[in-house]
Specification:
homodimer; about 425 residues; alpha/beta; Aldehyde Dehydrogenase, Chain A, domain 1; Aldehyde Dehydrogenase, Chain A, domain 2; 2 domains; 7-stranded parallel β-sheet; 4-stranded parallel β-sheet; 15 helices; about 45% helix; globular
Chain lengths: ~425, ~425
């Protein structure tokens, strides 16, 4: 099937999906979960093929781990679908309804986007997760997964579609692009006529390729060069706990801390404590000259370090003389993902919240909380780092749009 | 100045603009309005140059009219800025604030986009209008107007900047790209690092070019192939009034009616009345075979007519046997702008509102109401026909984004 045919099929069922109602959608999700479990043997066998190929081609251990499915992981995917079924349905809510002087009543109603495209890497669990969120929000989804996970994805999608079909629901609610030709992916990115939004999930290279090539509106997700600023009034223990958590609790994620900004007044006392705490996880600290003169173990930072998302046990560190300098440094180098201040000063907290330009700005908490589950959305399709449509963690609501509904009794425009 | 330099200058002042506060922004708008008026002679002289050139190159009367400035039109531009000053400031509103079980308080706050780019045709009034809305919503704006209006735009921007500067506010809140080279415009469209959103305002060709070339997130505005469906229970007089209004009150606009869908049961009685009413404005009706057999004056429609936005005294007309057929025809050919049903049947009204996929769906009212002023926003930067970020008329609120602000007291992620 060509990409255009896939697009057409998805578009064709948007009318049905848009008015399915929560009950039927939840039945579909439950049935999909059930069939996913019953397809386990086939899915694991398909995954085995992907793994064999990946190992032969020398894929690194981290990527192999993300690619690998187990009985437990398939169970987690099925549970994920059931959790989404349990979430509130965002569709149909009338956000506002107002009367106009001419007697028109104008309401704004939440409706599905229509067709959502998702381009992602070789993580087969995304296949089921993305389907669940798109389906619950009334959207058809077209998936283009990493080619290293192709066999796994084909098997997963086959069983999800069986589940839908068994529940009397359109199988084409989920479609997978199986052609791994790069030109096909490019064609997908230009399917504006059929796809309403394209969400890339993956590393910076993937996201850049989508942004550069897509004519479909894109929601950029991803990179986080997140800072923690320790001001001159910070509680040292709180600062150490938060930095340790934000840097080391999970290193490969976009909301991990990558850079510290420390007020000059506390640097001589704080930096040795910081070094001690971070050495528990052997974190390398790349610091400016002033910081290096305080702690000799620090590695001198280069200009490049300020803008680097390490996703590793490495941190950059800069000393500043004022909150103004801190804000200006962060706004210059951050990717506008998640930024935190550790302070006990009211005015500094307010200024940081107001003046830092980021999706999530924290006072006295770890940047690791930028997450759909932690924010209480019950789900997450990604974390938007752009300003259009959605900013920060995206749940079901961010997969919807609105339409105006207008009730009249014969009004014409004068 | 290169486009990149312009982008950098805009980005540099976003921090200041974001926290200016309503009072200073309103002072800036009032000062800009005052200086616009005091620059009248210079602006009119510049406009005269544009008009001379346009007439020599044989520009048509409609476009000349849109290009032409008069003392009155400059007055209207200044009044527009004062009206925007009088609107509520959307910035700083906290849309929601919730406590999480771990003690974090998570709020969502409305903030400016940052830098807004606008690409438009030779309509110098857009220059002041767009500036007013962007400035009030805390954004820096970069304008690229049609080259036929270059002299006029340079003069207008000069006086608006004087007004800002006089009020002690950053002149670079409004910048104009004066290089008319197409490559420069393309470069502008790829300035993702500095521009947060790009809004094209103009005809289908301009919008297509922006969508195809931009890497900046785009809000597509514009084309409207708007339908009115007259069902079998419609009040004929109401239907005639609404169709007449929607088609003829102003023909060159995106919310004008371009196509009618008539239920078969009422066609024999309704079509002769329709023909009579629309002949008052000599509207040409391009109809399907069945309709042509009822009214011999109708012109046979081709497949192309169903998808055409005429922006002229022309309408297409199709007869259908059911509301299902009507909905399916409209969803197939509409541009998802504004669609109306004329009915006295409750179930038909509800089905139309639920199942038509468009920015604005009307029951018993003219499609001409899809407009920021008519919707009560007090302003309009355009009408979005895409689903991402904003759908339908866009006012000040649609020029904003949000950021999460999180208040903690030492929380780390377990």
């Amino acid at each position: 099937m060509t990409v255009i045919e896939i697009g057409k099929k998805a578009k064709e069922i948007t009318g049905i999906l848009g008015i399915l109602g929560s009950e039927k959608k939840n039945q579909g999700l439950k049935s999909a979960a059930k069939f996913l479990l019953s397809g386990e043997a086939e899915i694991l066998a398909a995954n085995e093929k992907d793994l064999d190929k990946a190992k032969k081609s020398g894929m690194n251990a981290g990527l192999i781990d993300r690619l690998e499915l187990t009985s437990q992981r398939i169970g987690a995917m099925a549970d994920g679908l059931l959790s989404v079924a349990a979430l509130d349905d965002p569709i149909g809510e009338v956000i506002s309804m107002k009367n106009r002087p001419n007697g028109l009543t104008i309401g704004q109603k939440r409706v599905p986007m229509g067709v959502v495209g998702i381009i992602y890497e070789a993580r087969p669990n995304v296949t089921a997760d993305a389907f669940g969120l798109c389906f619950k929000s009334g959207n058809a989804v077209i998936l283009k997964g990493g080619s290293d996970a192709l066999e796994s994805n084909i098997a997963i999608v086959k069983w999800l579609r069986k589940g839908l079909s068994e529940a009397g629901l359109p199988e084409d609610s989920i479609q997978l692009i199986t052609d791994t030709d790069r030109e096909v992916t490019k064609e997908f990115m230009r399917l504006r006529e059929y796809v309403d939004v394209l969400i890339p999930r993956g590393g910076a290279g993937l996201i850049r390729a989508v942004v550069d090539n897509s004519t479909i509106p894109v929601i950029e997700t991803g990179t986080g060069n997140c800072h923690v600023f320790v001001d001159e009034t910070a509680d040292f223990n709180m600062a150490l706990d938060i930095i340790f958590n934000a840097k080391t609790q999970r290193i490969g994620v976009c909301n991990a801390c990558e850079s510290l900004v420390i007020h000059r007044a506390v640097a001589p006392d704080f930096l040795p404590l910081l070094k001690e705490r971070l050495s528990l996880k052997s974190v390398e600290i790349r610091a400016d000259e002033e910081a290096c003169s305080i702690v000799s173990d620090f590695v001198p930072a280069t200009e490049e370090d300020w803008g680097t998302e390490y996703l590793d046990y490495i941190l950059s560190l800069k000393i500043v003389g004022s909150i103004d300098e801190a804000i200006s440094h962060i706004n210059r180098y951050s990717t506008s993902h998640s930024e935190a201040i550790i302070t006990s000063n009211y005015a500094n907290a307010q200024r940081f919240l107001n003046e830092i330009d980021a999706a999530a700005v924290y006072v006295n908490a770890s940047t690791r909380f930028t997450d759909g589950y932690e924010f209480g959305f019950g789900a997450e399709i990604g974390i938007s780092t752009q300003k259009l449509h959605a900013r920060g963690p995206m749940g079901l609501k961010e997969l919807t749009t609105t339409k105006y509904i207008i009730y009249g009794n014969g009004q014409v425009r004068p």
